[in-house]
């Protein structure tokens, strides 16, 4: 009787151990499933981030190309492999480890390809940024040179401004004097014409001059004679 009870007790213990082992296996599988699920969720999240990054990179590259083209530089053209849109991937519903492993492998390969594309785009963006920085530096240098020359010209203009003003005043005064000078020239021309006319009849002029000198001499004689009479 005791041996039967003992045998039953051993059977119960074995069943309890078997159940405990099954429970532990289930727990282990659940832990593995949770870990795999977390890994998949992390991969999917990373994929979403990468896809959003890839959607933003072409816009940034396009903006850089426009800025570079505005400086007259031909941007480098690289064929883009990015999709214009992407569909959201739902979380897998399967609990099979092998199937989950296959899904994870596919996702990893896809992410590797996406990373390569992103790396290429980042390199392209870096090259464009370098070109843009060089053009911007050249533009800033030319702008600074232009501003310096402009300031120098303004200084020279300010220095020449009094001289220009003086020349303008002298020009205005000269314009006012021109009529007077022309009048004087006309008068001189008239006098010259009269002198030329007188020079054409020298005998007549000499006769007139002699008569004038004779009249002056007679007048002097009369004056001297009257003075002598007074003295007497």
UniProtKB/TrEMBL annotation:
Protein's UniProt keywords contain Coiled coil: yes
GO cellular component terms given for this protein: ciliary basal body; intraciliary transport particle B
Superkingdom of origin: Eukaryota
Gene3D superfamilies for this protein: 1.10.287.1490
UniProt GO molecular function: tubulin binding
Any one GO biological process: cilium assembly
Keyword tags: Coiled coil
Residue ranges that the Swiss-Prot or TrEMBL entry lists as coiled coil: 23-53, 164-198
UniProt-listed PANTHER family: INTRAFLAGELLAR TRANSPORT PROTEIN 81 HOMOLOG
Protein name listed in UniProt: Uncharacterized protein
């Amino acid at each position: 009787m005791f041996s039967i009870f003992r045998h039953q007790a051993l059977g119960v213990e074995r069943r309890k151990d078997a159940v405990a082992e099954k429970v532990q296996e289930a727990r282990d599988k659940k832990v593995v499933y949770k870990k795999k699920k977390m890994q998949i969720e992390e991969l999917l999240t990373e994929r979403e981030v990468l896809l959003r990054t890839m959607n933003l990179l072409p816009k940034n590259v396009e903006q850089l190309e426009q800025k570079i083209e505005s400086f007259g530089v031909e941007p480098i053209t690289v064929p883009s492999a990015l999709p214009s849109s992407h569909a959201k991937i739902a979380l897998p519903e399967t609990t099979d480890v092998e199937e989950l492993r296959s899904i994870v492998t596919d996702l990893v390969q896809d992410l590797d390809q996406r990373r390569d594309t992103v790396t290429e785009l980042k390199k392209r963006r870096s090259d464009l940024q370098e070109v843009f920085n060089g053009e911007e530096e050249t533009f800033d240098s030319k702008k600074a040179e232009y501003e310096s020359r402009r300031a120098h010209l303004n200084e020279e203009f300010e220095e020449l401004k009094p001289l220009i003003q003086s020349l303008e005043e002298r020009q205005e005064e000269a314009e006012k004097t021109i009529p007077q000078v022309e009048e004087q020239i006309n008068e001189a021309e008239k006098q010259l014409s009269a002198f030329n006319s007188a020079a054409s009849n020298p005998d007549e002029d000499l006769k007139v001059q002699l008569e004038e000198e004779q009249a002056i001499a007679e007048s002097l004689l009369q004056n001297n004679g009257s003075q002598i009479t007074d003295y007497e």
